[in-house]
Amino acid sequence: MRCALGFVMLVAVTAGCAGPEVACPAIGYAVGIGLSIPSPAGISRATLEACWRGRCVTNPVGLYPETAAGATTCTGTGPDSSCGTSMVPTGGLQGFASIPDLPAEPVRVTVRFDDGWPHTVEVTPSFAEPNGPACGKAGPQVQLVAGAGHELRVR
Fold this sequence. Notes:
46% strand; Immunoglobulin-like; 4-stranded antiparallel sheet; mainly beta; flat
């Protein structure tokens, strides 16, 4: 009985030293490669190929109108005041290629737009902490931007 009581006390003392619990939201985080095309003249579709360690994955990238926050309006200046904004189109396009096995190591990415020409860049996707360091890492992801000549760079 004495051993059992000692064990219970040890567990109780150890549990008290663990620090405060952190509530982490149970939200999903997409693993893959994002693509932004600020000046999409002549672009209506994209296909993305990602290669690493002798393996390649090819995905179509659904392109959608890109938006940004518009003007902010506020009512009042006190603690009960509120502010709001709406999303407005930027004229660009954006998309995302889901790649569940994407590693956080060098990856060769090739994007082909409507003209079929390959546009290639070497990137290293990274993990993110979307809910803070106490909630762990998610990802990896990398965000790319296509320039005026469709050249790719990391955002």
